[in-house]
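To make this tangible, this section ends with a sequence with its structure tokens:
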Amino acid sequence: MASRAEPSGPSARGGGGAGLLPPLLVLFAAAALIPRGDGQNLVTEDVTVVEGEVATISCRVKNSDDSVIQLLNPNRQTIYFRDFRPLKDSRFQLVNFSNSELRVSLTNVSISDEGRYFCQLYTDPPQEIYTTITVLVPPRNLVIDIQKEIAVEGEEIELNCTAMASRPATTIRWFKGNKELTGKSEVEQWSDMYTVTSQLFLKVGREDDGVPVICLVDHPAVKDLQTQRYLEVMYKPQVRVSQNYPVQGLTREGEPLELTCAAFGKPQPTDMRWLRVDDEMPQHVVVSGSNLLISNLNKTDNGTYRCEASNAVGKSHADYMLFVYDTTATTEPAVHGFTQLPNSAEELDYGDLSGAPILLYGSTEALPTVQLSNASIALYPDSRAGEEGSIRTVDHAVVGGVVAVVVFAMLCLLIILGRYFARHKGTYFTHEAKGADDAADADTAIINAEGGQNNSEEKKEYFI
């Protein structure tokens, strides 16, 4: 049969896909090619490959009868006829040839190689089936563009991540550290390629300084493709005051006091100073850089001392409330000295109120609302308090106790009187008044009453 004849000689090896004998060309032109479908002896599979990699095309025959197999490209040029390659493209290499299979590899695949490749089997009638090569192109030039390289705490910055020239269009995901964020993506198509840009708006704080922002790509042609930029955030100083001496002890008259102020910010604070709130700094107070020293405490030193620090972003402060005790004081107060306000709610130190001092930190910013119990409020000494204030506190307690005793005594008296009057409440009826209702005057009533007393056995007294 003509369909099983094998080509031979120079005429069977034409270039550029001539590859078939003229009788076979006439045969294919005259015969109806059977389309791809079920029930065929010829089988193949579609191929998906990443650009630049290797694609393998396989034409297989079920129940082979030694018919000739050939492979054609999308332009109908013969790539392989049996184990012979008429097409002058060295990227096509024979992987396997037998009576039941023709397997060919294509190296360094590009977009131009995409399309339908035809497997043909010379039977009567001839059979044909196609396989589709799909080429994936990973994104190129994945970059993050930040609107502001250096941001200030509280600002909202814009970031853009662009994945260029991919196929199909890629999906972009955002991460700040380990937390995933949501951006807005736009897709542009250029010929058969896609460029995707994702936009992210991010409000930054001091905790974001040095944190990486990651742009991650989801694409079938590539895994774990990402790029990142580190945030640089400037913020106001954080100010802390610590008591070096006495260490968690009473600040007594005649003893020294040493305080140290520490400030951290970005940029690092360059201006730091001590001041006394609502009063002048005592002349005997020595300020040396971040340290404040009072060598001989007295009650005139009572007050609030503030450490202020500033940088290019702003100014913050922390306060220390000083209360000087008598030299005879021996009881350690539950909370002593520090009454500083927090920069933020996170800086509150809810330590054990029965032991060491509580350090709180202040700021020029709006302060959070903090609810304290009555016991906690009582632990904070007044900045102007002295011995007289303590005495006044004791006098108020005594007066309150006396008032309570008096009120209690008055209540007891009222209860006794109430019970007494309740027992003697009522009306008395006697036979001495019998006949008084019918008498015309008082004398007649008396006579009638006296007459009624003759019978002593009838005299009775009633109590209601």
In short: Residues 38 and 129 are 10 Å apart (CA to CA). The first helix runs from residue 22 to 30. The helical segments are 22-30, 374-378, 387-423, 442-452.
